[in-house]
Design brief:
By secondary structure, the protein is α+β, with helices and mostly antiparallel strands. The protein has 3 domains: 139 residues, 2-Layer Sandwich (Gyrase A, domain 2); 85 residues, Aminomethyltransferase beta-barrel domains (Alpha-Beta Plaits); 116 residues, Beta Barrel (Elongation Factor Tu (Ef-tu), domain 3). The chain contains 8 helices and 19 strands. The strands form 4 sheets. A 6-stranded mixed sheet has the order 10-11-12-9-3-13. Strands 14-17-16-15-18-19 form a 6-stranded antiparallel barrel. The chain has a 5-stranded antiparallel sheet with strand order 5-6-7-4-8, with helices on one face. A hairpin with a 4-residue loop joins strand 16 and strand 17. The N and C termini lie far apart (45 Å). 44% of the residues are buried.
Length: 376
């Protein structure tokens, strides 16, 4: 089992969970309290288990333009995007973020559970390109500061102005002698930032410790709480965001996962394009769908979805929503039944309960999430 930079702090202050090959904090005060802190104030997550790869070289842009389904040519320095690694069959190898640092230099953020598989896949496809790939995961600590008060907590300690940093924008910053990279990204549905502590080896975590402690110190008067993976999972599910290994895998395509929006069909070619185009034209049997339990009970991964006596899908994620005070879930349902408002049934611990199909996110975007207060 591998440790992250702040393992000693988490071992002392949180309940630990083994996840993705790492001992990670599951919760500190409690999942529900941490969840609501993020929705109403702010939460701080240590996500240093995530992987970071530097992709550089004269043909880095051309390589990524071919490797990924999204249009990297439209991502200028200081910007980033959410995208996918797909195989030749269109299956999702991983969902990732790519940040363009400067011409010929990119940072790729990958899931902890897919780090080795992603490295192998990318290296396999580098032949013929003037490009280099470097895994800097062990030299990078990563914290996620999320919630409506995230900016007011972070801004006073930085030497850069965050006002102009739009979603998926990123900027280099410093905190004394500590090198940082700040991106306006996250995995909770809320506004917030991910803070990369650069050039910080796991064996020498002092810089990561200082950043973490300062953020907690500045944020406590604002209602900031340290948060674990438990709240991260309930938050992302309320926002309708997928978790790789549950909602996404190599047998799932972006079309089935409702992630077609990442695909730039006008690109001449990219890995998996031909297969995905055929699937788009022919249609697909199941599609990712969000469900709200109408009565009591919490759906879990693997629970069957039925329509009468017929099996029509399965849950891939499920939890209790601290905001809705109801069970919510996500899964794959027969496409013909996936219209919002449709009711189907789920088998919950020997009983059959009705669930209704809803749009994501589950919460009112006028009250919660990064769009709160905005006209959409």
């Amino acid at each position: 089992m591998s440790h992250i930079h702040l393992y000693d702090y988490h071992a002392k202050n949180s309940r630990l969970l083994k996840f993705g090959g790492f001992d990670m904090p599951l919760w500190y005060k409690g999942i529900e309290e941490e969840h609501l802190a993020v929705r109403n104030a702010a939460g701080l997550f240590d996500v240093s288990h995530m992987g970071e790869f530097e992709v550089t070289g004269l043909e880095a842009q051309r390589f990524l333009q071919w490797l990924l389904p999204s249009d990297i040519n439209q991502v200028t320095p200081g910007r980033g995007l959410y995208t996918l690694l797909c195989n030749e069959k269109g299956g999702i190898i991983d969902d990732i973020i790519v940040l363009a640092r400067e011409p010929g230099k990119y940072l790729m953020i990958v899931n902890a559970t897919r780090r080795d598989a992603d490295l192998t896949w990318i290296r396999k496809h580098m032949e013929g390109f003037d490009v280099e790939l470097k895994d800097v995961s062990n030299e990078t600590a990563l914290f996620a500061l999320q919630g409506p008060r995230a900016k007011s907590i972070l801004q006073p300690i930085l030497d850069v102005d965050l006002d102009g940093l739009k979603r998926f924008g990123h900027v280099r910053a410093s905190l004394g002698d500590i090198d940082l990279e700040i991106s306006r990204t996250g995995y909770t549905g809320e506004d917030g930032f991910e803070i990369f502590v650069l050039n910080c080896p796991i064996e020498s975590p002092a810089h990561a410790e200082r950043v973490w402690e300062l953020l907690l110190q500045k944020g406590r008067p604002e209602g900031l709480l340290p948060c674990g993976l438990g709240a991260r999972d309930t938050l992302r599910l309320e926002a309708g965001l997928c978790l790789y290994g549950q909602d996404l895998n190599e047998d799932t395509t972006p079309l089935e996962a409702r992630l077609e929006w990442v695909i730039s069909w006008n690109k001449e070619t990219f890995v998996g394009k031909d297969t995905l185009l055929r699937s788009k034209l022919q249609g697909f049997e199941t599609v990712k769908t969000c469900f709200l339990v109408k009565t009591h009970g919490i759906p879990r991964s693997g629970y069957r979805i039925t329509n009468g006596s017929e099996n029509v899908g399965r849950f891939t994620s499920g939890t209790f929503s601290p905001l809705l005070r109801r069970g919510i879930g996500m899964g794959y349902l027969r496409t013909s039944l996936s219209t919002p408002g449709t009711e189907v049934l789920v088998e919950l611990r020997g009983t059959t309960q009705p669930v209704v199909i809803v749009d994501a996110p589950f919460y009112d975007t006028n009250l919660y999430g990064w769009k709160r207060g905005r006209r959409t």
